[in-house]
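dumping this here before i forget
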Amino acid sequence: VDELERAVTELGFRGWNTHSNYGDSFIDEKTYWPVLAKAEELGVPIYLHPTATIIPQLQTYGFALAGTAFGFGIETAMAMVRLILSGALDAFPSLKVILGHLGEGLPFILQRIDFPFTRPHFKKDPGFLPSLKKMPSDYLKNNMFVTTSGNYLGPAFICTKEAMGIDRVLLGTDYPYEDSGECLRFIEGVLVSQADREKVYALNAKQLGITA
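structure:
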């Protein structure tokens, strides 16, 4: 907590880049809530970035399953959903969380994620469903931003734009692991409107406080 405050107030950091797991735990666990509280207090976003998965079932077939193509995104998406279901975003309603790769698949299930909370045949008790102030999709739409890093499939971008809105999409290149030129060519190809491009390239990041 002290280091986050120092990094922001003294060193000029604009956010906190952290991982999808911490070796034996995840960001939603109560031991990390003081850091979440400080990020909200400072008004800086959290970039929830993949790392080597700790989910055993994703390690069976090596990097092909556990790595960038699948496991990274699966675990990072799970970490975001855990933040929601833990009540952390009720406790810290102004907290902003950024996910790469067009949201690690979460925009695709924006409607589906509310299913247990909207169907009357599901039990409404703490042992079966957590008690939340809003629908899970509301937290994704209000607390989550996504970047373009490393996901250059046109239909995926269209889904993300339609589900989240262009104001929630930020430029991300994932350099040096991805080709920045490919990223920019992709954005130029899928966004016809210059106004939308300007939002993705700079204006959305400025509104989030990442750039001046």
